[in-house]
Structure to design on (548 residues):
């Protein structure tokens, strides 16, 4: 509660500072409207159906991207984590692909997938696979050998050990990976929307508000909403982690 | 009784950075079906390694193990292990009840599995904590969960590595009696590693005394006590006291005394059994002692 009060106080202070800076003319008002104007703009937008459709489009793309990335990265992580030979064999490829910024793949994705929503989803999947994959592999490294021995002693074969020991024990790390993936996905989705245009989404809304009319208050309102979305996604995964994985030392240490 | 377990010249060497470390160096013994054999030996002599080899969790670097007459390759069926590091062997994401049900998941339906787990938890005095997570329990309670899990499985061969090390004296006595009762009811064959000499005499039908690493069997003592044991009268009996001191002496590499203060005829017989086995062990171990002393 105390942390919450302090956090709120900090936020209010930050907004007040912005308000003073912009209203006093320290920062030109045309390029950076005061927070009160931005928040009023946001309130207005929340009643605007086309804006809400843009938000829904981005959130939907986010859900799909994270789900697809998890479905690819978790099994792949279990395979790589459980087989050192496969891991060594794929290491060079992984190290080559991982540092490529998703946004740099936009032209390629446009050519391959066209300008529909598949493009941004594919790019978000690409960016999301890595944190989930690496967390899953790391989790298998951390797996206690004695748990595996226990299961084997009770007659569990390889697949059973993987599903009923390795997977549950990896879950806290996997969830952390998914949480990171979701925030990364949001960044990639909004960026792609901004850069390609033509598809409903928060990014496209910001692009349109900024061009032509040059409504900076609406641009910032969209930006703030993207930030709030990112915060909510992160908080949702943390909450889910605490609820589902109360057993884990990772989450136990924090509560 | 038919032979359950036959261990022949079993050896295991760990590969270390500075060469190989020979943990067990050629151990041979047999265990009859339904027998309870205690294994004692100095710390670090390879007792846990021996159990892991028998369980098929590590493959021995030499020698062989046969179970029911067929060679062990991989983990045999119908086996349960209580690991020395019991707390790390419990699944932290499962409740106590579900941990105990874990080995039964493949073979039993839900209702029967739950009943078996509840029964085993009751045996070890933990019927109230089935819904808790294992990391919410004390060390001694965790150890009892690990024991309950092994007993609920009703294995043909039960391997236990210092299973009562973390419980208080009173609970320990109760668990010892529980182990004797339950394993006899299901005619399980049991191998118990213990560092407690009294416990080895109290529990065992036989006691295997191991030497320091690379360990070998120094002595294979038959415990000539009545099968029905009682925490007070058994421990007071002269045969118990005699066996205990003999085990202790063998464990510390000592030679058996040539004359022993034995009073009753019955105990003299016990003593002879023990003495003749020492002699065998002595012969087998002369070489070792010559190098260590
Ligand atoms: N995984 C391993 N890798 C390398 N060396 C090992 C390994 N496990 C055990 N050892 C070594 O093998 C020897 C025997 O170990 P083990 O755990 O079997 O002994 P122990 O008799 O069970 O000891 P304690 O009485 O302390 O439980 C020790 O010297 C130990 O350091
Ligand atoms: Mg040990």
């Amino acid at each position: 509660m105390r942390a919450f009060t302090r956090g709120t106080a900090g936020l209010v202070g930050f907004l007040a500072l912005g308000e003073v800076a912009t209203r006093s003319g320290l920062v030109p008002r045309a390029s950076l409207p005061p927070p009160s104007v931005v928040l009023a703009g946001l309130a207005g937008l929340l009643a605007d159906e086309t804006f809400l459709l843009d938000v829904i489009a981005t959130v939907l793309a986010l859900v799909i991207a994270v789900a697809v990335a998890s479905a690819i990265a978790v099994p792949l992580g279990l395979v790589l984590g459980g087989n050192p030979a496969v891991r060594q064999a794929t290491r060079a490829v992984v190290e080559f692909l991982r540092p490529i910024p998703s946004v740099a793949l936009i032209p390629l994705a446009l050519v391959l997938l066209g300008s529909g929503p598949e493009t941004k989803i594919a790019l978000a999947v690409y960016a999301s696979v890595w944190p989930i994959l690496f967390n899953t592999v790391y989790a298998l490294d951390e797996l206690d050998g004695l748990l595996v021995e226990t299961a084997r002693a009770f007659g569990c074969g390889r697949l059973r050990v993987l599903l009923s020991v390795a997977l549950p024990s990896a879950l806290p790390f996997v969830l952390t990976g998914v949480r990171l993936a979701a925030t990364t996905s949001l960044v990639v989705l909004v960026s792609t929307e901004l850069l390609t245009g033509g598809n409903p989404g928060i990014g496209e809304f910001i692009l349109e508000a900024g061009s032509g009319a040059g409504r900076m208050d609406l641009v910032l309102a969209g930006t703030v909403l993207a930030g709030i979305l990112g915060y909510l996604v992160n908080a949702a995964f943390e909450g889910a982690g605490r609820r589902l994985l109360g057993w884990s030392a990772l989450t136990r240490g924090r509560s | 009784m038919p032979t359950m377990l036959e261990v022949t010249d079993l050896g295991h060497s760990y590969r270390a950075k500075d060469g190989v470390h020979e943990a067990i160096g050629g151990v041979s013994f047999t265990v009859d079906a339904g027998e309870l054999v205690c294994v004692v030996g100095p710390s670090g002599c390879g007792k846990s390694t021996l159990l892991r080899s028998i369980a098929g969790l590590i493959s021995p670097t030499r020698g062989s193990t046969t179970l029911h007459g067929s060679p062990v390759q991989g983990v045999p069926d119908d086996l349960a292990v209580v690991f020395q590091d019991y707390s790390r062997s419990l699944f932290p994401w499962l409740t106590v009840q579900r941990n105990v049900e874990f080995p039964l998941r493949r073979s039993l339906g839900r209702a029967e599995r739950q009943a078996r787990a509840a029964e085993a938890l009751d045996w070890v005095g933990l019927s109230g904590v089935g819904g808790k997570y294992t990391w919410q329990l004390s060390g001694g309670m965790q150890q009892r969960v690990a024991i309950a899990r092994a007993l609920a499985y009703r294995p043909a061969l039960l391997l236990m590595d210092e299973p009562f090390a973390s419980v208080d004296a009173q609970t320990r006595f109760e668990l010892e009696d529980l182990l004797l009762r339950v394993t006899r009811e299901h005619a399980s064959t049991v191998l118990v590693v213990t560092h407690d000499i009294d416990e080895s005499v109290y529990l065992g039908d036989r006691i295997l005394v191991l030497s320091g690493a690379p360990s070998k069997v120094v002595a294979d003592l038959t415990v000539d006590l009545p099968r029905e044991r009682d925490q007070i009268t058994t421990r007071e009996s002269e045969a118990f006291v005699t066996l205990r001191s003999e085990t202790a002496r063998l464990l510390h590499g000592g030679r058996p005394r040539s004359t022993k203060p034995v009073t009753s005829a019955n105990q003299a017989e016990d003593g002879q059994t023990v003495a003749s086995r020492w002699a065998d062990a002595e012969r087998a171990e002369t070489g070792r002692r010559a190098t260590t002393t």
